Amino acid sequence: MLITWLDICLGALGLYLVKAILSKKPPAALPPGPKKWPFLGNILDMPSTKEWLTFAEWGRIYGDVASVTVLGRPLIILNSAKIAIDMLDKKSAKYSDRPVLPMGGELVGWKNTMILVPYGDRFREYRRYFHRLIGSRHSMEAFHPAEELETHIFLQKVLAKPADLAAHVRRTAGAIILRISHGYELQGDHDPFVDLADKATEQFSLSTTPGAFLVDVIPFLKYVPAWFPGAGFQKTAKEWSNTLKEMVDMPYNFTKQQMADGIATPSFTSNLLEGKQLSAEEEFNIKWSAASLYSGGADTTVSAIYSLFLAMTLFPDVQKKAQAEIDAVIGNDKLPKFTDRSQLPYVDSLVKEVLRWNVVVPLAIAHRVQEDDIHDGFYIPKGSLVIPNIWHMLHDPRTYPNPSEFDPDRYIGGEGKVPQQDPRTICFGFGRRICPGLNLADASVFISCAMSLAVFDISKAVENGVEVTPVVNNTPGTISHPVPFKCSIKPRSAKAAALIQQDPGHIGV
Ligand code: HEM
Q: Which ranges of the sequence are coiled-coil (predicted)?
């Protein structure tokens, strides 16, 4: 290493002193927060895991808008949905950029996917495509057959091997997304596209982990050539960039080939390519936005659906109530479909509660501020990162009394009972960066709930004659999952088993 940590610290200290001398007095104070130390700011206060818990604590101490400073950059933490809407939604022109991440974004290339694409023309083009194809419940209807078919296959896999629940949930999420994004049908349990996409998304997490790469602290290191001593990150970045490129190109080329052969099933990609002469720029945008579907969609739905099984294991009365509704409306001769949804208000509330109780993306994805702002009297400087603490918003007892209780009835009104806020107005984020896959996510969670509860009884596993009660705990990270747990999944009756085993059909042209 030619550059040592001492050099870096001295360099940063020098920059800090120059900046402190030259900088103008700010027009107002930053939002309150833990004491900021000269040069270090709040680096020592930053939690190393499950940041949402510490951020919620700061909310209790400093109020719904708090701030810390890390390496000279303010982080603005929002602990109430109202403030998140006032800031990120109502002033979205200033608050819709994403942070620049030298390793994951620039060197590996994730800045070309929608999650990290800077706010600008390319961002708007991606969003237009998403909006056209999966932007409303109505446009999602075209993909309901794919959702129903893959969820039926999921039931069959769970029936055959209930102990592999987590793997089946993961496979199904990948299968649904690849059908929708590229009209691709999985080949067996170890599909090359799914394996590649899972590898790429894992590398996304590694490459965007704060503090994992020095180049994220000193961005000019990205110009250091790979042969330079200590520049091993360049080799890693190249390798990961190749995985990402393959993940983007392979399914795209598959769809183009299917279209050329006249056998493509309708998908996000085929729809955007159909009968058009495209510029290189347009082709790039279609290819990368289709890949964004996978990278944004697979792991998130996995977390939500896995948590449904956890909740049903722990809250048997809720399960029974949902099953009673399904039995009354649909009977037990067929599986539920999307067309039944309007008649299943309790199951619909259960979907909401799944999205609240287990918070899939607890801190959303940071929004970067593009212009100085004064909000509620606080100074929000350009370049700050705004972090909505979605976990706290969905577990705030002011909005959701007894937040750790799984209770779908909280959304059902009645005499003198006002329904609690629909968590879907919070869990998908805010403003122009709100999750563009929210209708797809909502559809996937609904159909999994309805079909699984129609045919399975989910309960605590029994080991050596003793019931095992799973512990509710979530993994750290941008996308948070319930930690693996055991449960028992059995068909509700011989008739239910027969229904599961029926031919799920197929989708073709
Ligand atoms: C339960 C499921 C899901 C949850 C809870 C969820 C939640 C979120 C959240 C909180 C954000 C950040 C919003 C913000 O910055 O304010 C986000 C962004 C995003 N989500 Fe989802 N999501 C889910 C499923 C999906 C699905 C199925 C897709 C794909 C179709 C998807 C694609 C994306 C993309 C591409 C972004 C980045 C948007 C942008 O930066 O403009 N998500 N999601």
A: none
> What secondary structure, in 3-state letters, does 376-431 show?
CCEEECCCCEEEECHHHHHHCCCCCCCCCCCCHHHHCCECCECCCCCHHHCCCCCH
pLDDT, residue 72, reads 87
* Spans of the chain, pLDDT less than 50: 1-3, 509
pLDDT at 188 (0 to 100): 83
Q: Which residues of 22-33 are buried (b: 16+ CB within 10 A; e: fewer)?
A: eeeeeeeebbeb
Residue 444 CA: which ligand 1 atom is closest?
Answer: 27
Count structural domains, the chain: 1
427 lines ligand 1 (CB under 6 A): yes
- What is the model's pLDDT at position 102? 95
Please give the distance, rounded to the nearest whole angstrom, from the Cα atom of residue 428 to the centre of ligand 1. 6
Element (H, E) at 328: helix 316-330
What is the C-alpha separation between 183 and 175, in angstroms, rounded?
10
Sequence length of the chain is 509
**Is-contact 443 140, C-beta < 8 A?**
yes
Residues whose CB is less than 8 angstroms from the CB of residue 426 and which lie 6 or more positions away in sequence, other chains included? 81, 84, 390, 393, 394
Report d(CA 44, CA 32) in Å as an integer. Answer: 17
Q: What residues form the annotated binding site for heme?
A: 435
pTM above 0.85, yes or no: yes
* Cα atoms in the 13 Å half-sphere on the side-chain side of 246: 16
Q: For ligand 1, say whether the CB of 33 is within 6 Å of any of its atoms.
A: no
Question: Which pLDDT value is given to residue 2?
Answer: 42
Verify whether ligand 1 is closer than 6 Å to residue 291 (CB atom): no
- Separation between Cα atoms, residue 496 and residue 161, nearest integer Å: 16
Classify residue 102: in a domain, yes or no: yes
438-450 pLDDT, tens per residue?
999 999 999 999 9
- 508 lies in some domain: no
The domain of 467 spans 5-501
Coil, strand or helix: which one is 142?
helix
Residue 445 CA to ligand 1 centre (angstroms): 14
Are the beta carbons of 395 and 403 closer than 8 angstroms? yes
CA gap 148, 366 in Å, rounded: 34
Q: Provide the CATH number for the domain around residue 356.
A: 1.10.630.10
Asked whether 351 and 442 are in contact (CB, 8 A), the reply is yes
Whether residue 150 is contained in a domain is answered as yes
Q: In the prediction, which pLDDT does 476 show?
A: 87
> Residue 432's pLDDT is what?
97
Residues 343 and 463 sit within 8 Å (Cβ to Cβ): no
Reported as a single tens digit per residue, the pLDDT across 301-311 is: 999 999 999 99
